[in-house]
């Protein structure tokens, strides 16, 4: 028998599903998947498990023990499998492929969730409003919209969150941690989603298309903002003067005209500005950079407003339609 086991022969067969195993103890553990037997109980919360190893892993949720550390960014994990999954955020490895559309994923769970976009299956239903979800995690998050429960608290500023993932992302605003690095230009990001969006600046991928004018965008958020140029929607209103804006960023900039706040400082002369765009224009006074060129005489200017004034010397003071593409 020892010789047979050495050769990899599987001697022990499951009487339920006929799966074969090389060792009797492995067969016994497997059989619990059929019997539902969970003999190992957590003494802290009474949750039961089929294996002692699973119980040991679970106990770390109570102790906070995280013995598995990422060698790239030093992030720690309670489970070895979670560390292996995390390492793919650094390597970009996506071993799980959808057989329907060939999209690849870093985690098998993400692939399973994605498959439901093809089947339309939403097996998880809210008992309060009957809304259905493709993933149990999405249902749990949704339930907090009914309860308002935010059990996860930041130890730095006491802000509360509905999900642990939200708390982890928030903590990076305190630590400045940016563990996700672009393999093209080495720029670092606090979130994988921001890194994925950034990568499109290298690939020029613009998967989000405007249904009105067919203009394409790399982000859904940019598409949503663009759509307001068609609808005229201005959902962001100033509480001081009631002026409305299409973008939240424009409202924030406008509010500084009321508060006098100038958070953007020139690193050369320490002059402060209310907007980043004004700071960028100012920096050209130090660099001598002149991006705006007159189409009549080819004279160049550091600022678009100076170019517009100059164009009147050609038109005799009349308004001139500028054909120069403004800086984005």
TrEMBL record:
One GO biological process term: regulation of DNA-templated transcription
The UniProt record lists the keyword Cytoplasm: no
InterPro entries hit by this protein: Znf_C2H2_jaz, Znf_C2H2_sf, Znf_C2H2_type
Coiled-coil stretches noted in the UniProt entry, renumbered to this chain: none
The organism's place on the tree of life at top rank: Eukaryota
The C2H2-type domain, residue ranges: 12-39, 40-67, 68-95, 96-123, 124-151, 152-179, 180-207, 208-235, 236-263, 264-291, 292-319
Listed Pfam families: zf-C2H2 (PF00096), zf-C2H2_jaz (PF12171)
GO cellular component: nucleus
Gene3D superfamilies: Classic Zinc Finger
Subcellular localization(s) per the UniProt record: Nucleus
Coarse class of the protein's main subcellular location: nucleus
Keywords, alphabetical: DNA-binding, Metal-binding, Nucleus, Repeat, Transcription, Transcription regulation, Zinc, Zinc-finger
Gene Ontology molecular function, alphabetical: DNA binding; zinc ion binding
Homology family: Belongs to the krueppel C2H2-type zinc-finger protein family.
Function comment: May be involved in transcriptional regulation.
PANTHER family: KRUEPPEL-LIKE TRANSCRIPTION FACTOR, KRUPPEL-LIKE FACTOR 15
Name of the protein this chain belongs to: Zinc finger protein 544
């Amino acid at each position: 028998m020892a010789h047979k086991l050495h050769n990899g022969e599987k001697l022990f067969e499951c009487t339920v599903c006929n799966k074969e195993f090389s060792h009797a103890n492995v067969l016994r553990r497997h059989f619990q998947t059929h019997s539902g037997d969970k003999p190992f109980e957590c003494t802290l919360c009474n949750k039961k498990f089929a294996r002692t190893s699973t119980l040991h892993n679970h106990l770390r949720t109570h102790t906070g023990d995280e013995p598995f550390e990422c060698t790239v960014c030093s992030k720690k994990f309670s489970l070895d499998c979670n560390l292996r999954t995390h390492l793919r955020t650094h390597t970009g490895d996506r071993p799980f492929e959808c057989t329907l559309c060939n999209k690849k994923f870093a985690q098998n769970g993400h692939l399973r969730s994605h498959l439901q976009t093809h089947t339309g299956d939403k097996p998880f239903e809210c008992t309060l409003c009957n809304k259905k979800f493709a993933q149990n995690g999405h249902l749990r998050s949704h339930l907090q919209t009914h309860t308002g429960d935010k059990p996860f608290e930041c130890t730095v500023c006491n802000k509360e969150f509905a999900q642990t993932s939200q708390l982890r992302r928030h903590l990076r605003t305190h630590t400045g941690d940016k563990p996700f690095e672009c393999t093209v230009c080495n720029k670092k990001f606090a979130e994988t989603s921001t890194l994925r969006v950034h990568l499109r600046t290298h690939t020029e991928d613009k998967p989000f298309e405007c249904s009105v004018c067919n203009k394409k965008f790399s982000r859904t958020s940019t598409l949503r903002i663009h759509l307001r140029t068609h609808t005229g929607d201005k959902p962001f209103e100033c509480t001081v003067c009631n002026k409305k804006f299409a973008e939240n960023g424009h409202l924030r900039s406008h509010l500084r005209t009321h508060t006098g706040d100038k958070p953007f400082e020139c690193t050369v002369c320490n002059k402060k500005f209310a907007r980043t765009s004004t700071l960028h224009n100012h920096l050209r006074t130090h660099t001598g950079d002149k991006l705006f060129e007159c189409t009549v005489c080819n004279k160049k200017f550091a600022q678009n407003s100076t170019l517009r004034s100059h164009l009147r010397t050609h038109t005799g003071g009349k308004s001139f339609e500028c054909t120069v593409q403004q800086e984005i």
